[in-house]
Amino acid sequence: MTNKFRITEEPINPNDCIEKVVRNEAGAVNTFIGTVREFTRGKRTLFLEYQSYIPMAEKKLRQIGDEIQERWGDTDTVIVHRIGRLELTDIAVVIAVSTPHRADAFEASRYAIERIKEIVPIWKKEHWEDGTKWIGDQKEKKSYEKKIPLEEEMCDG
Amino acid sequence: MTNKFRITEEPINPNDCIEKVVRNEAGAVNTFIGTVREFTRGKRTLFLEYQSYIPMAEKKLRQIGDEIQERWGDTDTVIVHRIGRLELTDIAVVIAVSTPHRADAFEASRYAIERIKEIVPIWKKEHWEDGTKWIGDQKEKKSYEKKIPLEEEMCDG
């Protein structure tokens, strides 16, 4: 199971994620892919940098898979998030969820991306045309400005 | 644009569909994949057969892409549906929609699969353990029993 919930510095191949969740019992796979977008509120992004506290991030991804299984039942989930420097259109995250019927696959996949942004310790540094900024949490509600938090400052709650 | 909305007898590669919609302006791609499930209401499927009136089906797929663009704006959509004999876990359909933000990608992808089942002339023959049946429309609300409709019987409305 371990490699179903992964942080990686390598490019992510969506087919690999999809193949891991396809199974006889499932009639539906929903895949969400987050890519690096050029413009955010009128500012041009040149590239992004992601950093993560990997063991905790992978643990949190696995937790999201467990939450999906509890809520929807009969699910299979893969979540892979890339870190390091990402260029425009590079894939930052792939979620793939298989379920017997399609409504559940859509809902569970949507749930996964919202939860990633809530609980997974991954920090994004925006490199804009006119400067850089660490985006504190992925919901972008706070900013750590020049630095990301130290490992000791994070709570595994 | 033509090959973004395709009926094919060959296996569908999700990565090919995804690559076609990834672009600088998009931060999100939602992909829906329909696969051949073993059990439906307790009946075991051995394999499926899909047939289609291809020119009309591709025209309708393209129409769905246009509807998505009208409703959500700034979208890019690929829809590929396979026909012929499909085994368990084979991919029958892949939808990929890219949008700047994720909520739209999820909604548009969901819209696409519902519309496919409403308006695209593709017929499914279930080969169960204990017999076969043509599923008339994809919403499975009527059955053509032993045959699919003649081309002349279909209206392009």
The main β sheet of chain A shows up as: 5 strands, antiparallel
Distance between the termini of chain A: 23 Å
C-alpha geometry of chain A: elongated
Report the C-alpha radius of gyration of chain A, rounded.
16 Å
CATH topology name of the domain at 2-47 and 59-120 in chain A, in short, is Aldehyde Oxidoreductase, domain 3
Number of helices of chain A: 3
Q: Give the SSE string of chain A.
A: EHEEEHEEEHEE
Most extensive interface between two protein chains, with residue counts:
A-B, 33 and 33 residues
- Percent of residues of chain A in helical segments? 25-40%
In the CATH hierarchy, what is the superfamily of the domain at 2-47 and 59-120 in chain A?
Answer: Molybdopterin biosynthesis MoaE subunit
* Oligomerization: homodimer
**What's the rounded overall pLDDT mean of chain A?**
89
* Low-pLDDT sequence parts of chain A: none
Per CATH, the architecture of the domain at 2-47 and 59-120 in chain A is Alpha-Beta Complex
Give the total of beta strands of chain A.
9
Give me the secondary-structure category of chain A: alpha+beta
**Regarding CATH, which class of the domain at 2-47 and 59-120 in chain A?**
Alpha Beta
Residue share in β-strands of chain A: 35-45%
